[in-house]
Design goal:
alpha/beta, Aspartate Aminotransferase, domain 1, Aspartate Aminotransferase, domain 2, 2 domains, seven-stranded mixed β-sheet, two-stranded parallel ribbon, about 35% helix, binds pyridoxal-5'-phosphate, transferase, serine biosynthesis, aminotransferase
């Protein structure tokens, strides 16, 4: 019997494109004539190496990365990058700088403080509960790098204009908005993104390293915590998360071939976000707390008139086949995650449900 699919607004792991899931199913018992599944073949086989190399090529094309950049796959999630970035990229005598936009960026800062003495929080939006993106970022020529979280998954804010840092490399946690919009990668020394929001399944982190950053890596790091290992061994020093990389390659292919690239994806994401924010702004049963120019297109947070109504909203939506709308446990409320894998149709159905729920409970 065929099971029914629901509309998935999960914050992560999150919705994947149907054509990707169908291909995975089709190839499950025998991958490219090997008679084995991707879960069973050697990571040293030519079939897997081709998957990995194609994934890297597609990511480079999608993000307009020239040959100054390396793309590697690392386990341990974005959370391990909170530590690997300062271990690899902090320079002696030069503070590392962070902007605190809440939750994940706060965690990145706390992790950095375990590793480096001189962590400088140059700007923060804590004063207004992280409902905006700081605009004045003081840059010192002496910083090792400036770290930002490009999209704040839990607070529902997103950077629409990256800080100008001159010669100081930007470092960005793009876990929840990579491939969702066009940007100029050149100012970024490091970009990292756990795959499970916009790029594939959990278990792999895409790390993009500008080659000049490799020069500053200390020689005494443990092998598996050193970016050089992953660059020099093409992410194959040890057994990589083969299945996750295989799905990332398919998601990247879907983006290139079915959607038409990141610019086309951005237009779809714009439509989805405009539809939902447009509705929220047109009435007063649902409220979005974020400063309008800093709103995230990926994670739309909203409140209803009471926590009781929010609970009922999530329950009824789930029954209607709209899942994942509960806000993060640290902030409460509701949240619709509109990642690349969420089609416009899902947002249309959500807005219709929201209207109907407001009519009954308003
Ligand atoms: C989900 C998320 C993380 C945590 O990722 P893990 O892969 O679970 O470590 C970090 N940063 C951002 C912006 C996220 O959205």
């Amino acid at each position: 019997m065929k099971e029914k699919r629901v509309f998935i607004f999960n914050p992560g792991p999150a919705a994947l494109p149907i054509p990707v899931l169908e291909e995975v199913r089709e190839e499950m018992l025998s991958f490219r004539g090997t008679g084995m599944s991707i879960l069973e073949i050697s990571h040293r086989s030519k079939e897997f190496e081709e998957v990995l190399n194609t994934a890297v090529l597609r990511i480079k094309r999608l993000l307009n990365l020239n040959d100054d950049f390396e793309v590697v796959f690392i386990q341990g999630g974005a959370s391990l990058q909170f530590a690997m970035v300062p271990m690899n990229c902090a320079q002696p005598g030069k503070p590392i700088a962070y902007v605190d936009t809440g939750y994940w960026s706060t965690k990145a800062i706390q992790e950095a403080q375990r590793i480096v003495d001189d962590v400088c929080i140059v700007a923060s939006s804590k004063d207004r509960n992280y409902t905006y993106i700081p605009k004045e970022i003081p840059i010192d020529d002496n910083f090792s790098y400036l770290h930002i979280t490009s999209n704040n998954t839990i607070k529902g804010t997103q950077w629409w204009k990256f800080p100008k840092t001159g010669n100081i490399p930007l470092v960005a946690d793009m876990s929840s908005d990579i491939f969702s919009r066009v940007f100029d990668p050149r100012p970024f020394g490091i970009i990292y993104a756990g795959a499970q929001k916009n790029a594939g399944p959990a278990g792999v982190t895409i790390v993009i390293i500008r080659k000049d950053m490799l020069e500053r890596i200390p020689k005494n790091l443990p092998t598996m915590l050193n970016y050089t290992t992953f660059v020099e061994k093409n992410s194959l020093y040890n057994t990589p998360p083969c299945f996750a990389i295989y799905v990332v390659e398919k998601v990247a292919r879907w983006l290139e071939e079915n959607i038409g690239g990141v610019a086309a994806m951005e237009e779809i994401n714009r439509k989805k976000a405009n539809l939902l924010y447009g509705y929220i702004d047109s009435q007063d049963f649902y409220r979005n707390p974020v400063q309008p120019e800093d709103r995230s297109w990926m994670n739309v947070v909203f409140n209803l008139p009471s926590p009781e109504l929010e609970k009922l909203f999530v329950e009824e939506a789930t029954r209607e086949g709209l899942v994942g709308l509960k806000g993060h446990r640290s902030v409460g409320g509701c949240r619709a995650s509109l990642y690349n894998g969420v089609p416009l149709e899902a947002v249309e159905v959500l807005v219709d449900f929201m209207k109907e729920f407001a009519r009954r409970n308003g």
